[in-house]
Amino acid sequence: xxxxxxxxxxxxxxxxxxxxxxxxxxxxxxxxxxxxxxxxxxxxxxxxxxxxxxxxxxxxxxxxxxxxxxxxxxxxxxxxxxxxxxxxxxxxxxxxxxxxxxxxxxxxxxxxxxxxxxxxxxxxxxxxxxxxxxxxxxxxxxxxxxxxxxxxxxxxxxxxxxxxxxxxxxxxxxxxxxxxxxxxxxxxxxxxxxxxxxxxxxxxxxxxxxxxxxxxxxxxxxxxxxxxxxxxxxxxxxxxxxxxxxxxxxxxxxxxxxxxxxxxxxxxxxxxxxxxxxxxxxxxxxxxxxxxxxxxxxxxxxxxxxxxxxxxxxxxxxxxxxxxxxxxxxxxxxxxxxxxxxxxxxxxxxxxxxxxxxxxxxxxxxxxxxxxxxxxxxxxxxxxxxxxxxxxxxxxxxxxxxxxxxxxxx
Length: 410
Fold this sequence. Notes:
Elements: E1 12-21, E2 40-47, E3 53-55, H1 77-94, E4 102-105, H2 113-118, E5 123-126, H3 130-138, E6 143-144, H4 150-158, E7 163-169, H5 178-188, E8 189-200, H6 202-207, E9 220-221, H7 224-234, E10 236-244, E11 250-257, H8 267-278, H9 290-310, E12 315-318, H10 322-331, E13 341-342, E14 360-361, H11 364-369, E15 373-376, H12 382-388, E16 398-401, E17 407-409
Parallel strand pairs: 4-5, 4-7, 5-6, 7-8, 12-13, 12-15, 13-14, 15-16
Antiparallel strand pairs: 1-2, 2-3, 3-9, 8-11, 10-11, 16-17
């Protein structure tokens, strides 16, 4: 029987069922194509006790976060700009300087901490995946290559490595034991320290029909209602919250240790909680229509692929992103529908998309093949990609996005 990963409850309502799919970041080599591929149910439910929306688990976290993990944050200029701005804003707001210590949990390839180094602020990262940890070390950033939780936090605190500031961007959704993970922050923070957590907002996921942000690595789909409860139970107090446009609309939550309450709670916290209550996020109604909306978007994308094939149009895609794999597998697309996927990350080029087996290539392939349509899979950075690939208009190419509904534009 499924139990809530936060409160242990057993009463759930359906939210989203995408069938079976391979792990979204398990890219394939040519030799893998003839072998059986691991696939797991991608089923998401909402706990009616604490309103945490979560996957039903069928594999251990190491299956999804392996040593050759292929997601590197630094390949998006939009995200790098966001990280640089964040570091500067946190320095100014909380007076961080040469006598401070910044820690990033899920430091990935050092995309954020490189800007702390530029400002002369001491820092280190925590990152369990070898591939991205090595990329961060190449930037001169110290990395603790382990999964984060209470035990690791206790060891670091015992070594006098407590932080004035901890950043945790797009990781809170990625942890199976969310209580242990959050509890580690209460240990690793100094008494007056601040931790910030950025994560896609469940409110925007539903409003924008962003069903493709569901994949096995995302164990939780988060509202402030659920996060506030989890934090209170694990020793943190939410004292501020902001919205950001990234990943389709995210929350940035500011937290401090509950045993010191060093920061005054701002009105924005209750305002966001009230927004969520007014939207019905503490009732079944909010969650009940998402499945049908996802299926409608899927069917629209399938119709586009069918029409393009009938018309003799060549379709390519851009961005070998996890969300793209969710869309492609839910739609049943393959290399007969989409000729190739372009990605700037050399770690993905020459490999194949999981499930769909579409080849991943470099950007020069677009110029060589001149496809009629280019599907932007990471729609959250659509503006960046359309600017980068504006040259496809030279041969009359058009861009396509499938979320929230199908759109074709020049």
